[in-house]
Prior knowledge:
The structure is a single chain. The chain is α/β, with parallel strands linked by helices. The protein has helices at 4-9, 49-59, 72-81, 85-94, 97-103, 117-127, 159-166, 194-199, 256-279, 301-314, 316-326, and strands spanning 16-18, 36-40, 64-70, 112-114, 139-145, 151-154, 171-173, 176-178, 181-185, 205-208, 231-233, 239-241, 284-286. The protein has 11 helices and 13 strands.
Amino acid sequence: MLDWGSRRARADTADRVSLRAPSSSPVPERSERPGIALALGGGAARGWAHIGVLRALDEANINISMIAGTSIGALVGGCYLAGKLDELEEFARSLTRRRILGLLDLNFGGSGLFGGMKLTQRMQEHLSGLAFEDLPKPFVCVAAEIRTGHEIWISSGSLITAMRASYALPGVFEPVVCNGRVLIDGALVNPVPVTVCRAYEQPLVVAVNLHYDVFGRAAVIRHSADLPEKEGKTLDGDKAPLVVDKGPRRHDVRLGITGVMVEAFNIIQDRISRARMAGDPPDLSLQPKLGHIGLTEFYRAEEAIKIGYETTKSQLSELQRMLTVLA
């Protein structure tokens, strides 16, 4: 088995750039007990479910050998490895609509609606000075470089800077400048970073996909721009009432500028994650049913955490079986 540093060196760098300094990161001690590599996906407010996933794994005494996180998956994964999951969960459960508004610092003149500095200040209270090198297990934050489209793997340096870059949703939060690169949300390129865990040659990769039930099977719908109940022609040329799809049977909701950007980003994440996970599937995929929780509904943390916990508990027997095979 190769050590942590050599595993990373063998990763395919053709379309990915690492911001890791190879000589600065210590090689972790090899664990005698087999563990799992977690790929924690992006999903904004639905990402609180990752807390429940980690709680269930800890209760079952499942060893976690590494974590790769995208967007809020990077935030939760980093806090977990830094020993700050309790503080993050307390913060998440304390959020209300009013408190969320208080954390958003409007920045109309910048490259994002919100500067994100108030959130950064909250992270500084618990993570100030912490670096990847201080963590007990390998950890990778996935971001995207806006000027080149490169997938960026950050695995050394400031933990807070890396997590901010990974969740810098375009148009919502300002990009993060890191070593000359302008970085944005990693979900644009790798929403569920299974490939990162594979590059580190992890034998058992578990993915947490937060978008599985949002769009169903992503059906293609033949639609018409005409008015309903207009007479049309079938494919055989016979006249027949033209069937017009009226969309989902629910009340129209004005999304607003931010809502439109977030929902469009949600579609992008869903399509990319389907394609990438089909080409390089995890050994086990945890798929919490979170479609009813909006991407900006961060005040629903209690519900999301419970769903993540219960979803993981239901898969523990299969996970234990896989670990037994590796032992």
